[in-house]
């Protein structure tokens, strides 16, 4: 009946007490990088409005467009992986579901990243 | 007997449902929701890039869907989510340096973020239609 464990002893060893700061920092660093990159990408998308298939591919294939666009995608994906990890940790209290969602989060990010990277590489170098 | 039982009977401090809803709470949850929306939105980016990498047909299909009324509404929401999340991010960075955390100031920056995100979205779409 009586629970002999203190609240502190119940939570000890559950959350990480070591990597929280680096998680926090990674979110801030990626967000700082994303500020100029997302402004660039919004400008890029606006400038491409109404452009043809050939024109879009020619623009995206330019190094000075391709590199920041690729950086935007990769850094966005890492930023959102970290963010979703935080949301899952906040709201999901069932351990199995939490771990599953965290894995799916990573899978989703890597999958989207792979698809975007392949497409951009194909546009720049492929047929 | 055990300290846990005593602790579990302590009253909780007033929480979400007790307070009158301030604008800062709206912006707080909006930051999460827009983050989640942008997460899903990457699928649109991926689709558009795949289309551009595949064939003129695929590209035309993607453009037709995104250029439809519903497509445009989704993209308008996407633009707004991006600006609100970006401005919210700047607000968070300000807080990280320890400034602008007072009640009145945080309410002012909340309104400022909301207004800035709407203005930036409007400017982007005006520019878009000028290009088109």
TrEMBL record, chain A:
Membrane topology of the entry: Multi-pass membrane protein
Cofactor(s) the record lists: heme
UniProt KW keywords: Electron transport, Heme, Iron, Membrane, Metal-binding, Transmembrane, Transmembrane helix, Transport, Tricarboxylic acid cycle
Gene3D superfamilies named among the record's database cross-references: Fumarate reductase/succinate dehydrogenase, transmembrane subunit (1.20.1300.10)
Cell cycle found in the keyword field: no
Pathway: Carbohydrate metabolism; tricarboxylic acid cycle
Transmembrane region(s): 32-54, 60-80, 101-125
Domain of life: Bacteria
Classification via Pfam families: Sdh_cyt (PF01127)
Keyword Iron (UniProt): yes
Annotated SUPFAM superfamilies: Fumarate reductase respiratory complex transmembrane subunits
Localization (cell): Membrane
Subunit structure: Part of an enzyme complex containing four subunits: a flavoprotein, an iron-sulfur protein, plus two membrane-anchoring proteins, SdhC and SdhD.
Function: Membrane-anchoring subunit of succinate dehydrogenase (SDH).
Name of protein: Succinate dehydrogenase hydrophobic membrane anchor subunit
Organism: Tianweitania aestuarii
Name of the coding gene: sdhD
From TrEMBL, chain B:
UniProt entry keywords in alphabetical sequence: Heme, Iron, Membrane, Metal-binding, Transmembrane, Transmembrane helix
Organism domain of life: Bacteria
Chain segments annotated as transmembrane: 29-49, 69-90, 111-131
Localisation per UniProt entry: Membrane
A Pfam family matched in the record: Sdh_cyt
Main location: membrane
CDD domains: SQR_TypeC_SdhC (cd03499)
Co-factor(s): heme
Lipid bilayer topology: Multi-pass membrane protein
InterPro entries given in the database record: SQR/QFR_C/D, Succ_DH_cyt_bsu_CS, Succ_DH_cytb556, SuccDH_FuR_B_TM-su
Cross-referenced PANTHER family: SUCCINATE DEHYDROGENASE CYTOCHROME B560 SUBUNIT (PTHR10978), SUCCINATE DEHYDROGENASE CYTOCHROME B560 SUBUNIT, MITOCHONDRIAL (PTHR10978:SF5)
Family: Belongs to the cytochrome b560 family.
Subunit structure: Part of an enzyme complex containing four subunits: a flavoprotein, an iron-sulfur protein, plus two membrane-anchoring proteins, SdhC and SdhD. The complex can form homotrimers.
Function: Membrane-anchoring subunit of succinate dehydrogenase (SDH).
Protein's name in the database: Succinate dehydrogenase cytochrome b556 subunit
Originating species: Tianweitania aestuarii
């Amino acid at each position: 009946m009586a629970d002999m464990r203190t609240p502190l002893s119940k939570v000890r060893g559950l959350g990480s007490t070591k990597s929280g700061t680096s998680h926090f920092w990674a979110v801030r660093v990626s967000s700082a990088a994303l500020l100029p990159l997302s402004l660039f990408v919004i400008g890029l998308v606006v400038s491409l409005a109404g452009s043809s298939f050939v024109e879009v591919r020619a623009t995206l294939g330019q190094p000075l467009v391709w590199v920041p666009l690729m950086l935007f995608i990769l850094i966005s994906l890492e930023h959102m992986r970290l963010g979703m990890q935080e949301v899952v940790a906040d709201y999901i209290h069932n351990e199995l579901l939490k771990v599953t969602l965290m894995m799916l989060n990573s899978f989703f990010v890597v999958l989207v990243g792979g698809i975007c990277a392949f497409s951009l590489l194909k546009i720049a170098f492929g047929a | 007997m055990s300290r846990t039982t005593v602790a579990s009977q302590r009253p909780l401090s007033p929480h979400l449902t007790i307070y009158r809803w301030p604008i800062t709470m709206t912006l707080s949850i909006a930051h999460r929701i827009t983050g989640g929306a942008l997460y899903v939105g990457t699928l649109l980016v991926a689709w558009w890039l795949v289309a551009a990498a595949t064939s003129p047909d695929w590209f035309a299909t993607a453009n037709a869907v995104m250029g439809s009324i519903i497509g445009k509404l989704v993209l308008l929401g996407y633009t707004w989510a991006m600006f609100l999340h970006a401005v919210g991010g700047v607000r968070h960075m300000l807080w990280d340096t320890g400034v602008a955390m007072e009640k009145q100031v945080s309410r002012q920056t909340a309104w400022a973020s909301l207004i800035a995100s709407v203005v930036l979205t409007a400017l982007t779409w005006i520019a878009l239609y000028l290009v088109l």
